Amino acid sequence: MSPDDLTLGINTVWVTTSAFVLSILAISVLRLEGAGRPDHTKLPEGIWSGIVEGISFVWNHKVLRTLAFIDLTVTGLYMPMESVLFPKYFTDRNEPAHLGWVLMALSVGGLVGALGYAVLSKRMKKRTTMLVAVLTLGAAMTVIAFLPPLPLILALCAVVGLVYGPIAPIYNYVMQTRAPAHLRGRVVGVMGSLAYAAGPLGLILAGPLADAAGLQVTFLALSVPMLVVGLIAVGLPSLRELDRAPDS
Is 21 part of a structural domain of the chain? Predict the structure, then answer.
């Protein structure tokens, strides 16, 4: 590693650290309704009883259960592409700058998609947004699996980020409006834990598969099931509840 590369890496870490500090300061000044101390009379008796209660609520609520399975599957299939396959592809080609462009395209697309959902939500149903996101994600990653030229990869990555961006706001909306106040933390914890667990599981499978079968086969092994999940989701009646008014 040259001195210039080392300096660039150190500066990048400082920029990332500064962004974290700014986010902490921004959150510290937020004042949200209902964000005070919890009602101790509604807290679970112990950690495990709280976990079981959260899992039980998610499992018995059809739309939350469906979203949990979709999120689990999509995250498990998507994370290895960003964290393993793209780095390996550009490392093998000795093109680290191109990897940076790809990750930037994913990030910018995701930021625009998440922020743009505030406008999109007034014109497009949540179910339609979810289906378009999952189907587009599967289709775009399937095309990327054939390792086309870099400009097309960048365009597809921007599309992937754009359609993936609204998924988190929809999940958060459903969790906040479907779960009662005393269970909300447990429901968010269960849904978030499933997503965090899915990523490492996908990484464990993708790494050995890439070494054994190659990048293109591994890309297809991840993207085609994602496309199948999107097609299955089209016929799931529970997703129609996304656009129904939550119970009071």
Answer: no
